[in-house]
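pasting for ref
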Amino acid sequence: MKQSSSPQGSKVSITEEYRDKKMASLRDKLVLEWKNIYRGMCAVDGEAQSGIVTLKDFERIVHLNRVFVNKDEIKHLKTYFGANGGQQIKYADLSLALGLNSNTITMISN
């Protein structure tokens, strides 16, 4: 793994920089509609409330909320938030990782 130096002199891997940029890009896309997306996933998740939905349901719900995620971003999500061999997405973990969870409890009750 290649290393690059940051202005402060500490070493940060290129892989980490790439991941952070991808996460920031995904967050920017999802943040405006996250309340509706999260509600949709909770509805699909049903009473189990496992925090996991199928990849197909995730893509459908995101698309229904007019957020368009490309194949590379889906691959990235599967890498970090995938379950069951990448066929499911841990939307609860995604919410926490992207900092979109601040109002999760109140979103469900509203």
